[in-house]
Amino acid sequence: MILQIRPFVAPGFGENGYIVWRDGAATAVAIDPGNSVAPMLELLADEGLRIAAVLLTHAHLDHVEGVARLVRETSAPVYLHPADRFLYDHVAQQAQQFGMRVDSPPPVSKSLEHDLHIDIGDVTYHVLHAPGHSPGHVMFHVADAECAFVGDVIFQGSIGRSDLPGGDFMQLIESIRAQVLTLPDETTLYPGHGPPTTVGHERATNPFLIPHYGGGLA
Ligand SMILES: [Zn+2]
Ligand SMILES: [Zn+2]
């Protein structure tokens, strides 16, 4: 199948948000809308798409700051793993630490859990729990399109921070080993920051995953 994937790099924190839909379908999802809501709404109007869900990989400020506005405009339900609720419910306080004001997001509509399959717009998103960057971090794997939206678990040549509240380095490495490196090498990874990469490329070249940096753990 052809999956349409439109990345949006936000001003400010520079995080990636994505609008994703099956080619020809009228229903899309927004993944980590962050601070890209205005251009996302433009795309939806241009393409005649309806947002059926806001899928959150995790609830750090940079990935959720626009959720309130997006839901106000589209009434889409919000999907989040419950272990990140302590972050989601305190988005306003997260923002204060950066001297920003952010509207509190609406209640979570659906709690994500590991191994859940979500069918939206003729696309199946497989939820993979990958804690370590945050406790409730999940990835969304679309097997039919050989891709995964991995948030801040792994980046091209790097991995997510584990020094933020609820972060855990060993848990992050274990998540990468169990949830990322078990995907086929040709799987394209769409991260929360920076350009897309592939499982095979990171397996071979990511300095955190090769032995001399202790990557033998992964
Ligand atoms: Zn994060
Ligand atoms: Zn981030």
Q: How many strands in all?
A: 14
C-alpha end-to-end distance = 32 Å
Low-confidence stretches: none
Beta-strand content? 25-35%
Largest sheet: 6 strands, mixed
Small-molecule binders: zinc ion
Average pLDDT metric = 95
Which CATH top level class fits?
Alpha Beta
> What is the CA-atom radius of gyration, in angstroms?
16 Å
Number of domains: 1
Overall shape: globular
Helix content percent band: 10-25%
CATH-assigned homologous superfamily: Ribonuclease Z/Hydroxyacylglutathione hydrolase-like
Keywords:
binds zinc ion, single chain, 14 strands, 24% helix, globular, 218 residues, 7 helices, 6-stranded mixed sheet, alpha/beta, Metallo-beta-lactamase, Chain A
